[in-house]
């Protein structure tokens, strides 16, 4: 449903959507759920974030931000990844966009 043009599909071609239905997190607005939308093109993801972040729907404020991408464990072991749809990096990322855990905190 979230890939449809009336939702996140209007910002660009989506590679993957993962929904976390766990409502164990209860912020100031009460229990919430999360959706992780991965676009084919980074500029489409940025446009979606700009259009969706802090928008109020049914009295609830939506939050949107860039996620993080990790290296494929096969890549780190200098091995061929057997997963054709693997979402992790298989080459070194841009140095300017790379951070350690400590730098992110």
TrEMBL record:
SUPFAM superfamilies: RNA-binding domain, RBD. Residues 66-93 form the C3H1-type domain. A zinc finger (C3H1-type) spans 66-93. GO terms for molecular function: RNA binding; ubiquitin-protein transferase activity; zinc ion binding. Keywords: Metal-binding, RNA-binding, Zinc, Zinc-finger. InterPro entries: CNOT4_RRM, Mot2, Nucleotide-bd_a/b_plait_sf, RBD_domain_sf, RRM_dom, RRM_euk-type, Znf_CCCH. The keyword RNA-binding applies. Residues 6-69 form the RRM domain. This is CCR4-NOT transcription complex subunit 4-like. The lineage of its organism: Eukaryota, Metazoa, Chordata, Craniata, Vertebrata.
